[in-house]
Amino acid sequence: MEQFKLEIKQAAKAAWVDLIGFAGRDRFEGLEARRNPFTLFPQGKTAILIARRITRGTLRGVEEGSNFGDYGMFGRNWLTDTFINQSTYSLAATIERSGWEAMPVVPGVRQAVSGVAEPVEPDFKYAAVACGLGEIGVVGEVLTPQYGPRQRFALIITDAELPADPLLDKPVCTRCGRCVAICPLQALDSHWTDVSICGQTMPVASCDLSRCAICKNGAIATGRDSADRLAALCVRTCVDELGQAGALDNTFETSFRKRQAWGKNEFGEAVDIVEGGQA
């Protein structure tokens, strides 16, 4: 199956997939049913996680406070609903042409499953760690060695038993705490909690998502107590930190943050932003 895995990776490259990782179902054992992607396909043997990058320039308008609409399209709506879905379909079709079933799974969708008390919504952060693509940073988002927090994911569950990729062997997050310190709404807790996945332990700041849902600093509310934070001030600060630290493979000639960051409180009023960190 090594050859078939190589063929899948080659097909992924042709479908504009930026990242791909493989994990056997054993890495998901012990994960509660409502968060486990194999609950949706009990006969599945392998999870294949793919990602497409959010280009750094897509975040520029939000970082400058000058253009929010283009991020909403290229960094979120189109990237999620069109670009990565096209890649996922193409890869699933490639797998099925070889006689194996391939179930596409997208983030944020809850499925009612017979015999499971609660709706099933697979945990993509867990999957990113299990498939060897990244870790969860202090900011609470998946960080990859290639792009930091700048990517969106889709998942394919297949009954083909493919070799797993190794887990990430070095941290991406610098543990600087800038993301925590810079939040105008103090949504991130300064006391970090260890999160363990597949034997990997990562310090993560607890996040009050009800605060993020009313954030005026780049977060996009997705519910009363939920938000898409990938363009929020905390995550953009992470982008800047990882770039300055030289922690990423995707490098640029200039730093991401060009001037003092702008910020607003929950009422939309401008506030002074003071960069800081945590020892």
Could you please describe the fold and organization of this structure?
This protein has a four-stranded antiparallel beta sheet, with helices on both faces. It has a two-stranded antiparallel ribbon with strand order 4-5. It has a two-stranded antiparallel ribbon with strand order 7-8. The longest helix is centred in the first third of the chain and has 29 residues, at 69-97. It is globular. It is α+β, with helices and mostly antiparallel strands and 279 residues long. It contains seven helices and ten strands. Helices cover 27% and strands 20% of the residues. It has helices at residues 2-14, 60-64, 69-97, 124-130, 178-182, 209-212, 233-244, and strands spanning 19-24, 46-53, 102-105, 135-136, 142-143, 151-158, 188-197, 200-207, 220-223, 226-228. The termini are far apart.
Summarize the structure in short.
The chain is an alpha+beta fold and 279 residues long. Helices cover 27% and strands 20% of the residues.
Show the helix and strand layout.
Elements: H1 2-14, E1 19-24, E2 46-53, H2 60-64, H3 69-97, E3 102-105, H4 124-130, E4 135-136, E5 142-143, E6 151-158, H5 178-182, E7 188-197, E8 200-207, H6 209-212, E9 220-223, E10 226-228, H7 233-244
